[in-house]
């Protein structure tokens, strides 16, 4: 995954953001908060963001939602529901296998929890769905 870069001149310049890494809970929370800050800034200036993030904690999602709403933006949480077994089957980097072997600590869904969203705006079950069909559902929901 390439790093996302967002910069603007002025008082709140944002440094390039690193690609997501395997992190402890506190570090993941900070990374998600940084991402929410960027999204909130874009919304504050009339822009639109579509972010695909692993946000495994309810608390982090609630904070993100709050930050973006306060910044004048609508935020929609779209939950791509996929079982752990299907995630493991689709894993091209064998990260789940490594996590199960104990090589990776605090891995979402294996040794670190994934808290299923309780009130997402849209749920898409991707178990037997092509990515293009998921994208079409999201476009229909967003009316784009």
Description:
This protein has two domains: 46 residues, no CATH class; 68 residues, Rossmann fold (3-Layer(aba) Sandwich). Helix content is 40%, strand content 6%. The protein is built from five helices and two strands; from the N terminus they run ααβααβα. The longest helix is centred in the N-terminal third of the chain and has 20 residues. It is globular and about 45 Å long. The two termini are 25 Å apart. The relative contact order is 0.13. The N terminus is likely disordered.
Major sheet: 2 strands, parallel
The low-confidence parts are 1-11
CATH superfamily of the largest domain: P-loop containing nucleotide triphosphate hydrolases
Average pLDDT taken over every residue: 84
Order of helices and strands: HHEHHEH
> Radius of gyration from the CA trace?
16 Å
CATH architecture of the largest domain, by name, is 3-Layer(aba) Sandwich
- Overall shape: it is globular
Structural class: mainly alpha
Distance between the termini: 25 Å
Q: Strand fraction band?
A: 5-15%
Number of domains: 2
The top-level CATH class of the largest domain is: Alpha Beta
Helical amount: 25-40%
Q: Quick one: how many beta strands?
A: 2
* H/I helix tally: 5
Q: What is the CATH topology assignment of the largest domain?
A: Rossmann fold
Arrangement of strands in the largest sheet: 1-2
């Amino acid at each position: 995954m390439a790093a996302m870069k967002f910069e603007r001149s002025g008082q709140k310049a944002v440094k390039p953001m690193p690609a997501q890494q395997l992190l402890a809970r506190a570090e993941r929370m900070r990374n998600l908060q940084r991402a929410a800050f960027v999204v909130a800034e874009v919304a504050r200036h009339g822009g639109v963001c579509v972010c695909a993030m692993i946000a495994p904690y309810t608390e982090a999602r609630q904070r993100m939602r709050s930050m973006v709403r306060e910044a004048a933006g609508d935020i929609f949480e779209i939950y791509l529901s996929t079982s752990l077994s299907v995630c493991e089957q689709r894993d091209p980097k064998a990260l789940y296998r490594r996590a199960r072997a104990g090589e990776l600590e605090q891995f979402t869904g294996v040794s670190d929890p994934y808290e299923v969203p309780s009130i997402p705006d849209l749920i898409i079950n991707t178990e037997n769905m092509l990515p293009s069909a998921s994208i079409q559902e999201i476009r229909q929901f967003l009316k784009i």
